[in-house]
UniProtKB/TrEMBL annotation:
PANTHER family: TRANSMEMBRANE PROTEIN 208 (PTHR13505:SF7)
UniProt superkingdom: Eukaryota
Gene: LOC115887486
Entry keyword annotation includes Transmembrane: yes
Protein name as annotated: Transmembrane protein 208
Organism: Sitophilus oryzae
Membrane topology: Multi-pass membrane protein
Family, per entry: Belongs to the TMEM208 family.
Lineage of the organism: Eukaryota, Metazoa, Ecdysozoa, Arthropoda, Hexapoda
Short name of one Pfam family: TMEM208_SND2
GO BP, sorted A to Z: vacuolar protein processing
Region (Disordered) residue spans: 153-174
Keywords for the protein's UniProt record, in alphabetical order: Endoplasmic reticulum, Membrane, Transmembrane, Transmembrane helix
Basic residues bias (residue ranges): 160-174
UniProt-listed InterPro entries: SND2/TMEM208
Amino acid sequence: MAPPQKGKQGTKGAKQILEENLGTLKFYRNMAMISNALSLAILIFYHSAVNIVFYIFSSIIYIGSYQFMAYMAKPKYTETGQLLDSGVDLNMEGGVAENVKDVIILTAGCQLLSAFISNYFWFIWLLAPARLGWILWKNILAPYFFQPAPENPQVDEKKQKKLERRQKRMANMR
């Protein structure tokens, strides 16, 4: 085991990002497929209109989220086959991919809990718009509303007196 590093975190190479992105995509694809399969198995025996609608909705969320992450992580190669760009790092802290991964985890949790325990667990999905509102407030609205007022630049006393004399002269000339 390597000793913990102090200070700045090292940067990752393009190949390492590509390998980690493939692993991340595989993990979240498997999570979505397993929770969808388990939910479908329960849905076959205990189906209702509500469960079918939410199953379809969760499937759409899985597909959309996975395709979005796959699009973000799509690598670019040169004509000779060399890796030109590894795509966006899906494991970067604070990135958009982190929020998309949270949506997949939330959907899997809602789907499995509602399949095995109670349909009321579908209400957990209401955390997604709440999280979106919080991110919108924290990153866009709050800085806009609570930005500090611009400070008046400190004018030197000599410059201030000179400016006042000039204004008096201009007023006397009129």
